[in-house]
Design brief:
- By secondary structure, the chain is an alpha/beta fold.
- α5 (about 80-90) crosses α6, α13 packs across α19 and α20 (about 435-455) packs across α21 (about 455-470).
- About 40% of the residues are buried.
Length: about 650
């Protein structure tokens, strides 16, 4: 045995100091390998829609209702099953309604507890007792474990369990137990959550979603371009900050900044009222109008909208000039405006501008911020970089997030693998070197992390700036369009200029040979591997399918965002991967938690198998299983070293 291997085994012996300890762990791991794999849940592009996101987490994209059907079959009516499902999703809210109409509430408590226990037994059956025990709520762990664990040694089981249930009700703790069991079922139904990007923007609750994810039991996140822009803002990039604010105003969500993160918008409001006092700012309307605002407030918000948009265009121009290797000179539009004639030249053609009032632009130096604009942005930057809540959320994105992930035979990412027009991976210049395919993802992620952790000032600066590039660049894997036509949408009346052409990836990936090419690039081979990504809404109304390339590619952005629903016809696709295979779920729009509780309405509209396995998938077939086998091999070597005398057993 070489010195390195011996040193490793000595380290391992600290955890397993005797042959008995190591043997017990091998037996435990070997048993786990033969359990069914845990259920994975895939969501993408939730875009701040907290209520819908929360509901989908609660119902496990239909997994909870399926377990209820499995447990009770035809012994419960559809109405009773819906009521039980709603109780599991919203236990406290549902019990409040039940108390008002049930004549014998104690009987309802007892019946409900028995039903929840049966569901809990089923959802916990694929896990070891140790894993279930860790998931149990601390206050009621012992009693719940007694209730969900079969006891063959008890002769009169009915009397045993009746005694426990009756005591729970008599002590007045039935509602606490119902709540605890419901939460436990939600957790055990989904073993691991994948969020494939774009948590932020559009909807009013991205901060609430991030709060929820901070306490979620097991997850990973693949960054979306809307997440990256917030990460860039948190790192202090001024262009990212301006973009985040502009997006929030555009979608009527200033409350996310002001109340969610405590960002003070007064400096921007004061500046906008002064700089655009006589400007109606009619081009700067809301994509989604804020609720409950009056005309005066809307007028102010439109001025703020224009003020931050113009600041954004200036700051973006500064970055494009600072880093020529970004290759985005075609987006230097402010210098192509004829400020006297009120026209602009784009792609060789001259267009009449729809808005010609630019009091803050110096035609000789159009990308320079005025002193007032610079003061506003410095104050906003200070608010962003010192926001504790935003720091917490960005830490989660860094800890659990990445540009892509390979997990149990699936390649997960948000946007695309940039292709050129010839079907090859596009070569992209990142600070003077060309990267493509997996290497492009890797180098971009490295720079994102440098923005927060590097000690080298230049590398840190490159990292901070690259996040704006990832947000909007033509060959960014998280954006994947030829351009972001924000400027044209404001100022030019030509629909062709507003088109944001998608990267050719989205056409090539419809062909199995190109899907295989991408999978191979990331080290995946065989018939049971898939690409799973979001970013581009699936237009079900036009007959578009989220499943492409004979099932190799699954796109799960169906439009959680309310802004997409008229185009997509649904309110989001999600994916479940359990021990039986892959199941795609389409969701109807979510109205409110109150409606869901009152009417016992779910939002799962259709579940369809993408891929059924010919035999049940076990833990041993997963990435975790592979690590377990490696550990078993190491432990066997450790036992061999104990028996040969190379390592001496120690006291426990």
């Amino acid at each position: 045995m070489d010195k390195i291997q011996l040193h490793y085994l000595e380290q391992l012996s600290e955890m397993y100091p005797t042959i008995g300890n190591a043997s017990t762990e091998i037996i435990n791991l070997q048993a786990i390998l033969n359990l069914p794999k845990g259920t994975e849940h895939f969501l993408s592009d939730v875009h701040g829609e907290y209520d819908a996101f929360s509901h989908v987490l609660k119902n496990g994209s239909g997994a909870v209702r399926k377990k209820i059907d499995d447990v009770f079959g035809g012994t419960l009516s559809s109405e009773d099953k819906s009521g039980l499902a709603t109780l599991i999703y919203y236990p406290r809210e549902k019990m409040e309604l039940v108390r008002k109409k049930e004549k014998d509430i104690d009987l309802w408590y007892k019946t409900t507890l028995y039903r929840l226990i049966e569901v809990c037994k089923t959802v916990s059956s694929k896990y070891t007792r140790s894993k279930v025990r860790k998931a149990l709520p601390k206050d009621y762990a012992y009693v719940i474990e007694e209730l969900i664990t079969e006891k063959p040694e008890v002769l009169n089981k009915e009397a045993y369990y009746d005694s426990i249930i009756n005591t729970i009700v008599e002590l007045g703790t039935a509602e606490d137990f119902i709540d605890a069991l419901s939460e436990l079922i939600q957790q055990l139904v989904i073993d691991h959550l994948h969020v494939l990007g774009d948590i932020y923007d559009r909807g009013a609750g991205p901060h609430l979603i991030m709060d929820r994810l901070c306490s979620y039991h097991s997850l990973d996140i693949q960054w979306g371009n809307h997440d990256i822009i917030w990460m860039g803002a948190a790192a202090g990039n001024l262009a990212c900050i301006a973009t985040v604010i502009r997006n929030s105003i555009r979608y009527g969500n200033l409350d996310v900044l002001e109340e969610g993160y405590g960002i003070n918008m007064l400096p921007l409001a004061t500046f906008a009222m002064k700089a655009y006092a006589d400007d109606p700012c009619d081009r700067f309307v809301f994509k989604v109008a804020p609720v409950g605002t009056d005309n005066i407030e809307n007028d102010l918000t439109k001025k703020m909208h224009k003020a931050i948009a113009m600041i954004r265009f200036k700051l973006e121009g500064q970055l494009i000039k600072k880093w020529p290797e970004y290759g985005m000179n075609d987006r230097l539009l402010l210098e192509h405006i004829d400020y006297v004639k009120g026209t602009i030249e784009i792609e060789g053609k001259t267009y009449k501008m729809l808005d010609t009032y630019f009091p803050t632009i110096d035609p000789d130096d159009p990308y320079r911020l005025t002193d007032e604009e610079e003061e506003v942005m410095n104050r906003l930057r200070s608010s962003f970089i010192h926001c504790d809540k935003l720091k917490t959320h960005v830490r989660l994105l860094l800890k659990k997030g990445s540009m892509y992930k390979v997990y149990n035979g699936n390649l997960l990412f948000h946007g695309c693998i940039p292709f050129d027009d010839y079907g090859e991976f596009a070569k992209v210049n990142v600070y003077g070197r060309l990267y493509s395919g997996k290497a492009l993802f890797d180098v971009l992620e490295t720079y994102v992390r440098k923005a927060f952790f590097s000690d080298d000032p230049l590398e840190k600066e490159k990292g901070v700036d690259i996040m704006w590039y990832i947000w909007t660049a033509p060959y960014s894997p998280l954006y994947g369009r030829k351009k972001m036509s924000t400027f044209e949408r404001y100022f030019v009346d030509d629909e062709t200029l507003k088109t944001e052409t998608k990267n050719s990836y989205y056409e090539y990936i419809k062909k199995p040979e190109y899907a295989d090419k991408v999978l191979k690039e990331f080290g995946l081979h065989g018939s049971r591997v898939h690409i799973i990504n979001g970013h581009v809404p699936v237009h079900r109304m036009k007959g578009e399918s989220p499943v492409k390339s004979n099932g190799k590619v699954i796109m799960i952005d169906g439009g959680f965002s309310k802004a997409y629903r008229r185009r997509t016809g649904i309110a989001g696709y999600t994916l479940i991967y359990n021990s039986y295979g892959l199941t795609l779920t389409a969701h109807e729009p979510f109205e409110s938690p109150e409606t869901a509780v009152r009417d016992e309405r779910d939002i799962v509209s259709r579940r369809e198998a993408v891929e059924n396995m010919d035999k049940r998938i076990l833990v041993g077939d997963t990435d975790v299983g592979e690590k377990m086998r490696e550990k078993i091999s190491d432990l066997k070597e450790l036992i061999g070293a104990y028996r040969s005398g190379e390592i001496v057993e120690r006291d426990k």
